[in-house]
Structure formats: C-alpha cells, structure tokens
Amino acid sequence: MTEASILFLRACLAVLASPIYLLSFLGIWEPFCKKVFFPFFLEKFFAIHEKKTNKPKQELFRNLPDFKSPSGELKLLEIGTGCGANFQFYPPGCKVTCTDINPDFQQGLSKSMDKNKHVHYERFLVAPGEDLHQVPSGSVDAVVGTWVLCSVHSVNGTLKEVLRVLRPGGAFYFLEHVAADRSSWKHFWQQVWYPTWKLVFNGCCLTREIWNNLEQANFSELNLRHITIALPWMPVQPHIIGYAVK
Ligand SMILES: C[S@@+](CC[C@H](N)C(=O)[O-])C[C@H]1O[C@@H](n2cnc3c(N)ncnc32)[C@H](O)[C@@H]1O
C-alpha cells in the first residue's frame, strides 16, 4: 500500500514537473541546470539557508584551529565548494583549496572571496570528490564538505579520497542533509520527492543514510550529531553535523 502510494505521488509530481522531464529527455535540462539554474538557485537559496545554519556552523568550525599542522599553518581543502558559503567560518590566514565538479559558480564564489579576505585562497580545482588526484596524499590538515555527499556519485569513494589527502591527525568536517527516520512521514515524503528532486537539483539524493558511510570509513574518531534544520515544507530537514579525525 505504502509502495503504491509512493509510486502514485511520484507520478503526480512527475506530471507537475513534466516540462523539466521533457527538457531532460531532449538533453537540454542538465546543461541548463548546471550552468544557469543551479548556480542561480544556490546563491539565492543559500542567502536564506545561511540564517538557519549560521549557529550550527559556527559551533562546528570553532575547533578548526586545533588541527593546524606543527608549523602553525592550516591547509584546508573544501569539496563541492559551490558559492563558498563556508569561507566566513574559516580562521584567519587559513590556506584554502576549493574543489567542485561545476566551474560555473564563479560569480557567487568571487563575491564570497571578496567578503572573506581573512582567508588565503590557494587554488580552485575542477574535480569530483571521488577523484582528487591533483592533491597529494597526506597534504591537508582539514577537509570540509557541506551539502555535497548528497550529490556525489560515490559517498564511500569520496570518503576514501578525503582520508587519502588528510594528514594523519587531520579532520573532515561535514554538515549534510540525510534520510529521515524510516518509519516517519518525513521519510515517506522524501521517497515521493526523490526522483523529481534529484532531476531538478542537480543529482541531489534525499534518502542517503550518510552516517553509515562515515561510521564504516576508517576514521580513528567520529564526532557526529543528528540535528534538524528548520526548513519548512522542504524534505531536507534531518541533518548530520560533526567532524571525523584520520
Ligand atoms: C548543494 S551544493 C552545496 C555547496 C556548498 N558546499 C554549500 O554548502 O553551500 C552541492 C555542491 O556539490 C557539488 N558537487 C556535486 N557532485 C560533486 C562531486 N562528485 N564532487 C564534488 N562536488 C560535487 C555541486 O557542484 C555543488 O557545488
């Protein structure tokens, strides 16, 4: 019965979003989404989202300076940087390498860089989280990924690369929206939204239980909390936040 309801509601949403499905069928939607819609949406949406995540992010990144290397430097690599929503939380003088699969965030990214002059921007790499081969093994003190493990093709592959580029004792900071409790209505609606959401929002998957991937990755220490971020009417309220030490 539940399966049938999910399929029925998915079909209803697909009808409502049929112009997007048609554009996708014609091969037009994905390049448009990547170049125009998603960068525009992300910049506007994150202005709202920022207000909700400001406090948890401040708390999350508070101990970033503890992971400075013995020379006193903090080399940080961000995966799926998008428009650079996290730069404001990085400590002064921190050396940041930005990576993303989408090079079309330049406008939002430049604005964020101009606002956050306390950070030293080293380079921008167009690279997927699953393949950071331009970054030497054990070369960074911290890796940051927020709202990115929902979209990568392989969460385990990305965590493997994160562990490779981190120096021993370095840390991976994360804030991710995740699957709701399987017995909840929120999970039901996440399943209903899943295919249309993934198409509209550039591959974003709503029902990933990312805490399992983090628990099974070979970090020596995992600090993880489940929190809810109040985004009314959106199927992305359950989150995990924390950091894992190599
Ligand atoms: C929802 S946005 C979040 C952006 C930013 N991290 C933030 O919190 O504002 C997801 C980002 O992940 C990027 N992305 C998607 N798949 C990726 C992959 N396989 N490797 C690296 N980045 C990826 C997207 O291009 C996009 O910039």
Characterization of this structure:
Helix 4 (106-115) links the parallel strand 2 (95-100) and strand 3 (120-126). The protein has a seven-stranded mixed β-sheet with strand order 3-2-1-4-5-7-6, sandwiched between helices. It has helices at residues 2-16, 18-25, 29-61, 106-115, 155-165, 185-200, 210-216; strands at 75-79, 95-100, 120-126, 140-146, 166-177, 221-228, 238-245. It is of the alpha/beta class. The protein has a single domain, classed as Vaccinia Virus protein VP39 (Rossmann fold). Bound molecules: S-adenosylmethionine. Residues 42, 46, 79-82, 85, 100-102, 128-130, 146-148, 151-153 line the site of S-adenosylmethionine (SAM). S-adenosylmethionine binds at residues 42, 46, 79-82, 85, 100-102, 128-130, 146-148, 151-153.
Identify the notable features of this structure and list them briefly.
7 helices, binds S-adenosylmethionine, 7 strands, 246 residues, seven-stranded mixed β-sheet, Rossmann fold
